[in-house]
Amino acid sequence: MNINYAYHQLYMNDVNHYIQSGFPINAFAILGRGVKPIDSSESLRLYNAMYAGHHIAKFKMILPHCSKFINNGKKYSIVDWACGQGLASSMLIDYLHSLKKLDQIDCIYLIEPSSYATNRAINLIKLQFEQYGSTTPYIIVKNKFFNETKIVDISTQTRNHFIHLFSNALDTNVDSTTHIMSIIKNLKTPSLIAATSPNYGMTQLAYQKMKNYFCIVNIDEISNHCGYTREIIYLLKYKY
User: Fold this and answer.
1) What is the rounded end-to-end Cα distance, in angstroms, of the chain?
2) Rg, C-alpha atoms of the chain
3) Segments in the chain below pLDDT 70
4) What is the structure's pLDDT at 228?
5) CA–centroid distance for 137 within its chain
6) Which of 58, 83, 135, 206 could form an S-S bond across to 196 if both were Cys, CB 3.0 to 4.6 Å?
7) Which residues pair with 77 in a beta bridge?
8) How far does Cα 70 stand from its chain's mean position?
9) Looking at the domain assignment, is residue 26 inside a domain?
C-alpha cells in the first residue's frame, strides 16, 4: 500500500534543513541521547532529523494491526503516550484514511512533557484532517511525564474503545510501566496496546512488566517481531 505519510515529509524537511546547514557537533548532548524532553524549537528539528527515520520504519509494521482492531459502527480514542511530535498518531491517521476508517476516531490524547513537541504535533494533526476534508476530533494535550499521568487525564465517560500507541516510549521510563498499565486497565474498556522500541535490555524489562501486569486478565494476543530494523514490536489486545 503506497501511502504518503505526512510525518515522513516533516522528517525529510528537517533532514534537508541540516543537510544544508550542517548538524551541530554536539547533537547527541543537546538531545540528551534522545530521551530528554524537547526544550526548544531547534531541538524539535534536530531530534526529528536524527531519530524519526527508524521510528517511522518500525511504526509502519504495526499499523495494519491497529487498523484490524477498528470495527465498523464503533468509535475509538487514540492515546499517544510520550507522543513527541505526534509521529505515531499522525501515521495512524494517514493509514486509517487510506482504509476509509478515519471517521471512527473522535478523540486523540497527546501525552508528552514537552509543549514544544505537542504544539508541533497538534499543528500537523489538524492539517491532516483539514487536507482530508474530515472533521478534526477532540485533541486533548497533557504535558506530563508517565509518572505524573493519572486516569482522570483520560476521560472515562465514554464508550469508546482505546488504541494506546507507544513509539519508542516504554523503554524510556521502565519504572512507570506498571503505573501506565494500571491506567489502561482501569479505563475498563476494550483496548489495543501497540508498542515499538529498540530491541535491548530496557525494552525487554518494560515489556516483561507489561505482560506480568496483564497476566490475570483476558489477553487475546501478545506477539513480538524482530525484523530487519533490529527492533521489537508488541501487540496486546485487552478486553475488559
Assistant:
1) 33
2) 17
3) 33-34, 216-234, 238-240
4) 40
5) 17
6) 58
7) 107, 162
8) 17
9) no
Strands 76-81 and 138-142: unpaired
Give me the numbers of helices (H) and strands (E) for the chain, helices first please.
7, 7
CATH number of the domain where residue 163 is located: 3.40.50.150
Backbone angle region of 239, left / alpha / beta, with phi > 0 → left and psi within -120 to 50 → alpha: beta
What are the φ and ψ backbone dihedral angles of 140, each rounded to 5 degrees?
-115, 125
Domain span at residue 118 reads 60-238
Cell triple for 82: 510520550
Question: What percent of the chain lies above the pLDDT cut of 70?
Answer: 89
- With CA atoms as reference, report the closest residue to 91 among 62, 120, 116, 117: 62
Q: Is residue 4 part of a domain?
A: no
Query: Per the structure block, which three cell numbers stand in for 174?
Result: 521502565
Length reported for the chain: 240
pLDDT score, position 229: 43
| Torsion 169-174-175-180 (CA) sign | positive
Which one-letter DSSP state was computed for residue 155?
-
Alpha-carbon distance of 239 to 220, in angstroms, equals 8
Positive/negative CA dihedral, 72, 192, 111, 125: negative
Flag whether 37 is in a domain.
no
What distance in Å separates the CA atoms of residue 129 and residue 198, rounded to the nearest whole number? 30
Handedness of CA 47, 53, 57, 63 (dihedral sign): positive
The one-character DSSP state at 65 is H
pLDDT (0 to 100) of residue 225:
55
Q: How many structural domains is the chain composed of?
A: 1
Give which of 28, 27, 10 is closest to 120, Cα–Cα: 10
In a domain, 151, yes or no: yes
Q: Element (H or E) spanning 63, and its range?
A: helix 41-69
